[in-house]
Amino acid sequence: MLNRIKYELISLLRNKIVVFWLMGFPVVLGTLFFVAFGSLADSEQDYSDIRVAVVKKTEAPEGFDEMMNALSGKDGSVSDGENPLFEIVTDKEDTARALMEKGELEAIIYVDGDVSLEVPYGAGGIKAGIVKSVLDTFKSRYEIISSAAASHPEKLPPIIKEAERETNYIKSESNSANFDPYVQYFYNLLAMSGLMGSMMGMYCAINHQANLSALGARVEISPLSKFKDILSSLIATLLIHNVFLNIASVYLVYILGIKFGVPFTIIIAVNFLSSVIGDSLGCFIGSIGGLKDGIKNALLLACSLGLCFLSGLMFGGMRLIIEESFPLFNRINPAALIVDCFYSVCVYGNYEKLISNIVILLIWCALLLTGSMIMTRKRKYNSI
Amino acid sequence: METVVKVERLVKRYKELIALDHLELDIKEGEIFGLLGPNGSGKTTAINCILSLLTYDKGEISVFGKKLCAEVKKDIGVVMQNVAVLDELNVRENIDYFCGLYISDKALRKQRVDEVIAFAGLEGFEKFRPKKLSGGLLRRLNIACGIAHKPKLIIMDEPTVAVDPQSRNKILEGIEELNRQGATIIYTSHYMEEVEQICSRIAIIDKGRNIAEGTKQELKKLIKNTETVSVEAAGLTEEQLETAKNMPHAYDCKYDGKTLTLLYSGGKHNLTRLLDYMHKEEIPIGRVYSLLPTLNDVFLEITGKELRD
Lengths: 384, 309
Ligand SMILES: Nc1ncnc2c1ncn2[C@@H]1O[C@H](COP(=O)(O)OP(=O)(O)O)[C@@H](O)[C@H]1O
Ligand SMILES: [Mg+2]
Prior knowledge:
The complex is a heterodimer of chains A (about 375) and B (about 300). By secondary structure, chain A is mainly alpha-helical. Helix content of chain A is about 70%, strand content about 5%. Chain A folds into 2 domains: about 1-40 and about 180-375, no CATH class; about 50-165, D-Maltodextrin-Binding Protein, domain 2 (3-Layer(aba) Sandwich). In chain A, α3 links the parallel β1 and β2 (about 85-90). In chain A, α8 (about 200-205) runs antiparallel to α12. Chain A is elongated, with a radius of gyration of 24 Å. With about 300 residues, chain B is of the alpha/beta class. Helix content of chain B is about 35%, strand content about 25%. Chain B contains 11 helices and 13 strands. A 6-stranded mixed β-sheet of chain B has the order 5-6-7-3-8-9, with helices on both faces. In chain B, strands 11-12-10-13 form a 4-stranded antiparallel β-sheet, covered by helices on one side. Chain B has a 3-stranded antiparallel β-sheet with strand order 2-1-4, covered by helices on one side. Chain B is elongated and about 75 Å long. Chain B starts with a strand and ends in a 6-residue tail after the last helix. Chains A and B meet through α1 and α9 of A and α2 and α3 of B.
């Protein structure tokens, strides 16, 4: 088995296409992004004084006003020299909409029994994202608080304290995060490199299946067990993929100096996840019988680029547009999930979100790998 | 002698098409067994069934008296019809890779790889990648990958297709050498000359059916034809042709205005008798051939069509 892994590694490393797409491409594209955004990114971004409107149609839920007051500095909690997170511009819907159209407003918060949010179409994201995160946190806490109040009133104080702490945390994180709005393109770049690895995953499947290639047939007539066969190939692929991704990341972070805003260990971890998801995707599509290799390749390219497009690789606002019109898709699009892993740490400092993203990604991997297994399990074929 | 591969009443369909129709094979230890048939006759399908790559509809297959399992696979070496090597690995690495599927001991493997490189005449090309090899060398690499682990049974599916004559001879000699070293060999081909040259026993198949089986002498006895005589002689008269046709032992006569071809069944001195007659008639003659029957004649006589298309 070690022998196999060794040769799988050698053949991957010598495969120019693999090396280009997995290492060269992110480096080249990363450099292009860097050059293109370089000047823009230099200007310091300030994430305080986010202009919002609060339109109340009903009485606000308990605690909402207090939170908004705290975050907009109306309760005097913000010391001098420090800007509050929000600036509440108006409470009139018409004024708010007019302002938003002119681009002078980041978000409208509606209070209508529930609390909901409207952001400008195609919003650049970070500021609107901050508002949304604040509201989400409030809502989830609110549910916990109100249900706790009903059943276990004695647990209420610590929960409220926790919620307050978290609100402050978001605020401080958002305020201090040295966040470059263009970094999302680099997040996407890494997500794409992860998904691009699906091409290697595809060959894992194709080269080990008698009905898919002569090489597969040749290996299947040997005494080696199929499980060991595919496993060794997957290990080699994942290994190479991670090495490449991390080299690309080192290049982006330490050579180009792009501020990902997350610890490098997180980048390594997310890279690992995206390599697993990419390879599983490739393995899955590669396992489909009756398709030509070229078609599978095209399918994979379309898949990885398509998913990355929808998560904002080419146009940063895409993710938010989807978030507004079809949020579920952002919850399941692997590329968006990978990007969101970075986001949740960098922008919101929210490790819970990170973990939920990771869980969804792992579910994806499990589904794809199970699917591939089902398709490849059979050792005898009707026709090859 | 012990049976190595036994195939009984094997039926394989691809949807409507019946690729194997109650095929029977019985391959004994120490043989070079030839599976001869035209393209599309079902040779590869039969091999894939024996190797358990394909499902089949009916029949029984056993290898070394057992159903195919990992244990049995260890003793089989396969050279597939399509070259299956890794493009990114060089010659030595490819052989080591495939040998590694069978032998995990590193030292032993190195020895085997060295042996097979010498055997296949690949010295000097060890660092070459498959793309840089000529067709013949690539085939030899494919063979080396299949036999490096010294299997007891070697199955070769048309290993000489698209190979230059020099490489082909080298391959055929190699196969005989492997057989001398003790391996049982199944060799499929649609080239009857190759099969005649090296195989100790031959099964001829067509449309998935056995049509004849035996040593080449046995096969040739199956048919009427024992000798084919051709004489270049222009402008024979009807009368002369009639006499030629009625020569003793001749059963068929063809004349295209230039060459007279007579098919004989048994008898001696057939050529001399014909030439004597022509001499007497003072017919000027050009080149003269007398051919013994080939497997092609066997195939032709049994199926009514040429082996080669
Ligand atoms: N995968 C397949 N699907 C359908 N028909 C096939 C398939 N493989 C082979 N055949 C048909 O089965 C017959 C036998 O093919 P094959 O075993 O490859 O012949 P040979 O190896 O003797 O040239 C041919 O008619 C061929 O067209
Ligand atoms: Mg064939």
